[in-house]
Amino acid sequence: MARRSEHTQDQIREMVLNAAESIVIEDGFHALTVRKVAMEIGYTVGSIYMVFANMEDVIMHVKGRALDELAEQLRQLEPCKSAEQQILALANVYLEFAHRHFNRWRMIFEAIKDAPVPEWYQQKTREMFLIVEQPFRELLPNPSEQHQAHLAAQALWSGVLGACVLSLNGSLGRVGAENAQVTVGLLVKNFIAGWRASLLPANAVPPKK
């Protein structure tokens, strides 16, 4: 068992998060317990609670790290020729992240408790959605209706999330990442077409693709 003097609290905090993340990657979110984390880092359970309020606090920070990584990959995406292509590319990055980091990605929306979500975590979620909202703003016929871009981003990403879950957890059979990409592509293209049409006046001519 490690001695407290061997590491600073910041180091123990990082060790806890790394160990918790490794457990989720290897065995899934439901295998994550405070005792297993303590065994992994060679410290007592009490030492973990010196740097985190409780196990829910640990879980939120592990989820936050996954969100940070996903958001960074979305930001690094090269600009596309059109907003529609950008949205599709963002969805594909999301799908790829879900495929490569399935247990960590699934933990983001499965590890949800009744306790209030911390403000810092809500901010991470808002920042990620802002990346998705930007190309929707470019498609708005009326730039003053920014809330429509926000609603569209949330609605589409809920659909993409559902497609990812069904495709990657075997609910639709062993479709694999390639076929999942086709499914997500159809969802994105049809959603954008329907959303843009809904924003036009009744007598307006739909925009060309």
UniProtKB/TrEMBL annotation:
Q: Which InterPro entries does the UniProt entry name for this protein?
A: Homeodomain-like_sf, HTH-type_TetR-like_transc_reg, HTH_TetR, MT1864/Rv1816-like_C, Tet_transcr_reg_TetR-rel_C_sf
Any single Pfam family the record assigns to this protein: TetR_N
Q: Which UniProt keywords apply?
A: DNA-binding, Transcription, Transcription regulation
Annotated coiled-coil positions are none
GO MF terms here are: DNA-binding transcription factor activity; transcription cis-regulatory region binding
DNA-binding: present as a keyword of the record?
yes
Record-linked SUPFAM superfamilies: Homeodomain-like (SSF46689), Tetracyclin repressor-like, C-terminal domain (SSF48498)
**DNA-binding keyword on record:** yes
Domain (HTH tetR-type): residue spans on this chain: 10-70
Task: List the stretches of this chain annotated as a DNA-binding region.
Answer: 33-52
Its recorded name reads Regulatory protein TetR
Q: Which organism encodes this protein? A: Methylomonas methanica (strain DSM 25384 / MC09)
